[in-house]
Amino acid sequence: MSAEALARLATDRVDHRFKGLPPDAEGLTVGELAAQRRDLFTGGFTTPVLALSAERLTHNLELMETYAARHGLAFAPHGKTSMAPQLFQRQLEHGAWGITLAVPHQVRVAREFGIQRVFLANELVDAAALRHIAADLAADPGYRFICYVDSVRGVELMDAALRGTPRPVDVVVELAAGEGARTGVRTEEECAAVADAVAATPTLRLVGVAGYEGEVPRADSERVHAWLRRLVALAVDLDRAGRFKDAGEIVVSAGGSAWFDAVADVFAGIPGLSLPVLKLLRSGAYVSHDDGHYRRLTPFTRVPEEGALHPAFRLWTQIVSRPSPGQAFANAGKRDAAYDLDLPLAQVVRDAGSGEIRDAAGIEVTALSDQHAWLRTAPEAELEVGDWVGLGLSHPCTSFDKWQLIPLVEADGTVVDYIRTFF
Ligand SMILES: Cc1ncc(COP(=O)(O)O)c(C=O)c1O
After folding, report:
1. Nearest residue CA, atom 14 of ligand 1?
2. Percent of the chain with pLDDT over 90
3. Which value, to the nearest 10 degrees, does the dihedral of the CA atoms of residues 329, 333, 336, 339 take?
4. Could you say which protein family the record assigns here (predicted)?
5. Is 212 close to ligand 1, i.e. is its CB under 6 Å away?
6. pLDDT per residue over 71-90, tens digit each?
7. Residue 375: closest CA among 421, 344, 396, 351
8. Alpha carbon of 117 to those of 77, 96, 110, 148: distances in Å?
């Protein structure tokens, strides 16, 4: 990665653009504020403020590094989760092969920060974006870029946009996760037709197959395994038909954060092919994990002997109204918390007077307005206006995207760094 571009993040000024940061830090650089090692609770931060646990983040990075290595998987964590180059850097330091992305803007962000291997898990038919990527490939021989193709028309559009560019763009055929699933080619016959179309262009090079088991309809272990076996069989068939002859290596890619155990299982059985195989896992949500959706879905509940991810986010919000014994309102809402999969979970209360932290017993989030959380409080709930409430969140992707500069906080409350996001 580009040390220079990363270092520039620390020279940015702390100001009104960044929610939750101390008003009295206005004008300091991000690096200067980090060097002050302020306390999250007493250092002038304003609510709501999202905190990312330094220790839990490190734990998750280490766990997936060892998991991927143990199972012989290369790892291209999905960068759309955090869109945080500092976290991309940590992921690469923890053994990642490269970074997965979804749309061209995200590729620009990654390239600005010097990412050398990008896996775009999407078909790309935007001519302007393709020309930009082709120019980037031409200018940087060390840059590896791979994207999906999922139709003959897509291949034709890509070819038309790329005519005259010096380096072919590497593509993998996307196999749909089933009938009625999201993107991807529905049948093996159509995959062969798309592969033929690629072979007929001078601008594209077929290097493998990919898909996303997270979209398998009515997913369960059996259906996910069956689809992954289909993906592997497709790679074997295309290889036998000589369709990867110029590839150098064959890419077989799948895997979010809900089924990487099935991916590890099935990819362990990939037979010898005509070229070395890059088995590429693309989990993204693991990086912060969560207190809802992914806590329920994590494969580590099926393979507890392999470890456990730790939820790393806590959204700190303050009680601004307690109109009745059964009701309270906190000052964080849809602008601040993920709400597309589950409501936040009240976890702890930090007492406004003593600063002590206690369990949020009897406190439940029942709804979110734009800027408020609606809390239902049982008789045993101890809660006053002014108290801070720590919320657990569900869905990492829609938590990161609401915050542009996220304090990285150690267990004792010391803020040691600030994570910049680019959405
Ligand atoms: C194509 C693709 N690959 C990988 C992922 C990463 O999955 P997860 O967010 O469960 O880590 C996603 C997530 O939406 C995806 O759409």
Report:
1. 256
2. 100
3. 120
4. Belongs to the DSD1 family.
5. yes
6. 999 999 999 999 999 999 99
7. 344
8. 11, 10, 9, 15
Residue spans of the domains in the chain: they are 53-288, 311-391
Does 147 contact ligand 1 (Cβ within 6 A)? no
CATH topology of domain 311-391: Lyase, Ornithine Decarboxylase; Chain A, domain 1 (2.40.37)
> Which residue carries 């406004």 as its tokens?
352
Into which CATH architecture does domain 53-288 fall? Answer: Alpha-Beta Barrel (3.20)
DSSP character for 230? Answer: H
Residues near 156 by Cβ (< 8 Å), separated by ≥ 6?
197
User: Distance from the CA of 122 to the center of ligand 1, in angstroms?
Assistant: 11
Tell me if 219 CB under 6 Å of ligand 1: no
pLDDT digits (tens, 9 = 90+) for 204-256: 999 999 999 999 999 999 999 999 999 999 999 999 999 999 999 999 999 99
Cα distance between residue 172 and residue 101, in whole Å: 14
**Rounded to an integer, what distance in angstroms lies between the CA atom of residue 92 and that of residue 99?**
8
